[in-house]
Amino acid sequence: MPRPGSEERVRARVMAEIRGDAPETVSADGLEPQLGYSPHGMGSETTEIMQIHASLPNTDTIEQWDTEQPTAPSEELKRYDTIQTLSRLHIRFEQKDEDVYVTDLGSSETTYVDDERVETQTRVQPGATLKCGKVSFKVVNIK
Fold it and tell me: pLDDT for 36-56, tens place per residue?
């Protein structure tokens, strides 16, 4: 169960990102590691992940996502359609001793670790590639 108020904080943060009001937290080219957080699986630990096959949208693209002024999706936005294959409940990360494991939560899009289908709890190591639907991530570091 999410912490009280977490959904509201996330919603506010996403809207601030869309409006361009949020502080810059990742590089514009999308090549710097981004923190992925799994509160249910790892307490307050973070795991650095980087999305391999996408780049961050520029300010003009983000402005087109403004829900207060909906417009038809442009050709530029279509490249982000693959993110729709990633459910917010797609996978779970769990820490056991010094190791981190990933479990597919029964998503309609299959999960892979280094091109091996995740059918049971699977160990994840730095350098591994996770594929969730059409979205791929490279594990940079596990702390």
Answer: 544 444 444 444 444 445 555
DSSP sequence for 16-77: HHHHT-SPP-S-TTS-S-EEEE-HHHHTT-EEEEEESS-----HHHHHHT-TTS--PPPHHH
Transcribe 91-143 into DSSP letters. Answer: EEEEEETTEEEEEE-S-SS-EEETTEE-SS-EEE-TT-EEEETTEEEEEEEE-
Domain boundaries, the chain: 6-142
Cβ atoms within 10 Å, residue 33: 15
As a whole number, mean pLDDT of residues 82-102 equals: 74
* CB distance 72 to 65 below 8 Å: no
State the pTM of this model.
0.43
Architecture field, domain 6-142: Sandwich (2.60)
